[in-house]
Amino acid sequence: MGAAGTMVCLLGMAIKSDFGALRSEAATFGVGGDNSYPGLLVGRQLLNLGIMGLITCASSLLAGIMIAVLLPLSEILAVLFLHEKFDGPKGIALVLSLWGFASYMYGEKVHQKKAEAQKNQLLQQQMARKTGDLELATP
């Protein structure tokens, strides 16, 4: 899927002759020369391969969580190592992505507590039926 998306993007860039724009944008931002493009392409494909591996071996939910974690992490690492500016839109994106991740984790914790409480209540009812305690056996 990732390779197909890359091919479609490359085809569109070839049709519009946008490969020259890549060089001018790279020069504007001070990114490396022509050697950096294959590295970016291979890195992106490895990221897609890793995400497909997560979906295959674990779950698509875990892959989504990892993508949500990678967004703020990539912004922070770009500021630290690439010396990018940390301006307003980048700060807003960072806050929103961290807020979304934190709210997901909180929701999972609440769901887990509810499931544990229901499990404990069911165990109490089963134990009460076995011991003959009628007060605890009724839901």
Tell me, rounded to a whole number, the average pLDDT.
80
Structural class: mainly alpha
- Termini separation (Å)? 50 Å
Number of strands: 0
Helix content: over 70%
User: Low-confidence runs (pLDDT<50, min 5 residues)?
Assistant: none
Largest sheet: none
The run of helices and strands is HHHHHH
Oligomer: single chain
Q: What is the percentage of strand-forming residues? A: under 5%
What Rg do the Cα atoms give? 25 Å
Count up the helices.
Answer: 6
Coarse morphology: elongated
Main location: membrane
Transmembrane segments: 46-71, 91-107
GO molecular function: purine nucleobase transmembrane transporter activity; purine nucleoside transmembrane transporter activity
Subcellular location: Membrane
